[in-house]
Amino acid sequence: MPRYRFGDFTLSPRRRILICRGEEQPLIPRYFDLLLFLIERRHEAVHRRDIFDRVWNDVIVSDSALSQAIRTIRRTLGDDPREPRFIRTVSRHGYRFVFLDVVEEDDDHASSPPAPVEVTTIEPAAADPFEPLLQRVTDVVSTAEEEEEQREAAELLHALGTGEALRRLDRRPRHALARALLRDTRWDTAHAGPVPIFGEPAPFAVATALVGLRLRRAGRIVATRWAGAAAGGGLAGVVAGTIGGLLLAAAPGSAAPVDVAAVLALIGGACGALGGAGVGAGLSAAEAIARSQRTFSLFAGGAAGGGAAGAVAQLLGRWSLAALVGLRVPIGGTFEGVVIGAAAGLAYALATSRAEGGVAAPRGRRRWRVALLVAAACGLAALFLSAAARPLVGGTIHLIAQASQGSQVKLSPIAAFIGEPDFGPVTRALIGTGEGAIFGLGLVLGLTRRP
Question: What is the pLDDT of residues 110-157, one digit of tens each?
């Protein structure tokens, strides 16, 4: 594994450090990977898509995340984007490392140990370095370019000293937005100090501003993932409904025609899409907003989204049955949605715990492992609901069929495959567990699809 020398800098992939004149220059891991990637492919302009696939290969981030990374690297190298010495922007394409005299050499760990990092202090100067930056992060902005300049000012405040910046910020006008900016940028600034929210001035205003910042930056990603989760849940419902309909038509003593599979597929698809939209929206928003307490946020987001979708399904189901056919069946939905959504959120959080700096997007076998883990969790949650006599879609259809005269979708004949005389607890548990597992599988495969 070689190391690279360019100008006053030495980049060591083996030790993962960037050194300038004997001093280590701090970079967060993904920014280090980006700089290394550009140097490795310095003979060509690297497309933004290739950068995302290499540096953020396990997560999805917004385009502004790459712009911020390049800006931070340029500042570390002392580079000027208007007259670049190291990194040049290639319009409508990506970036290129343009320094010509790059020396590749063996990275002998013993030959050039990094000099100890000296602790430097900011000497008093005629102009206060904090004040113009604090003014910038509390300004009112209206364009995307101005927002990026605000973020850069927040990063520079971290470099000067996070604690001192917060002390000087105090309660000046628009301090809540400035604290939110400092909180958000600390994750992308090496050696940044903590930026607490609760216990500090205007905690709820800061939290609200932080949520708004992160949702704006990840809005398109959240919308795409929400739609993908709805599609995945809907497809899972179609599969589950089709399997159930075919089993019902083939069951001994069943009068149901094969056509019933299409009806159950349609119902399953609608319910799955609604559930996927609710849980997917909750998970997507929680993952975009939370960078600390991620597990709890995904658990709560999944529960909230599932509960909302279940409440909608419950109200629509009861109103439709009462208005169209005069049936009043105790249809559930809200509690079931909360339980399934919470199980999906917790399992998803645990399975993607290493995803940092964006929304998780595992690939290949890892994606299937995440999907199978969430499917197992949703299946267990559905088993719990079935044991508590709270059926999901299949069980609810059976209740409606029992209350209707001449219905062909009673699921009692399926019990014959299991050995039960009627639609008993074992049949209910197996059908519910299968529904939950298929829903969880489709939900994650739709949620984690990379655009």
Answer: 445 444 444 444 454 457 899 999 999 999 988 888 888 899 999 999
Q: Which residues contact 13 (CB under 8 A, 6 or more apart)?
A: 1, 2, 3, 36, 107
- If we measure between CA atoms, which residue out of 235, 239, 188, 177 comes closest to residue 210? 177
Q: What are the boundaries of each domain within the chain?
A: 2-106, 130-216, 218-447
**Tokens 């002998």 map to which residue?**
108
From CA 427, how far away is CA 243, in angstroms rounded?
15
Instruction: Give the DSSP per-residue string, 186-247.
Output: GGGSTTPPP---TTSSSHHHHHHHHHHHHHHHTHHHHHHHHHHHHHHHHHHHHHHHHHHHHH
In angstroms, rounded to a whole number, what is the distance separating the alpha carbons of residues 352 and 4?
Answer: 33
d(CA 8, CA 17): 14
- pLDDT score of 435 more than 90: yes
Neighbours of 61 (CB within 10 A): 20
Residues 375-384 pLDDT 10s: 999 999 999 9
- In the chain, the percentage of residues whose pLDDT exceeds 90 is 57
- What pLDDT, on the 0 to 100 scale, is given for residue 114? 46
| Domain 2-106 class in CATH | mainly alpha
DSSP string of 270-283? HHHHHHHHHHHHHH
Tokens (6 digits) for 40: 């490795």
Measured CA to CA, the distance from residue 331 to residue 399 in angstroms comes to 9
- Identity of the amino acid at 24: E
Average pLDDT (99-107) is: 90
Cα–Cα–Cα angle for 327, 331, 336, rounded to 5 degrees = 170
Q: Is pLDDT at 109 greater than 80 in this prediction? A: no
Give me the sheet containing 87-90, strands edge to edge: 46-47, 94-97, 87-90
Q: Is the pLDDT of residue 415 over 80?
A: no
| Tokens representing residue 100 in the block | 């010509």
* 94 contact partners, CB below 8 Å, separation of at least 6: 45, 46, 47, 48, 49, 50, 51
Statement: residue 354 has pLDDT above 60 = yes
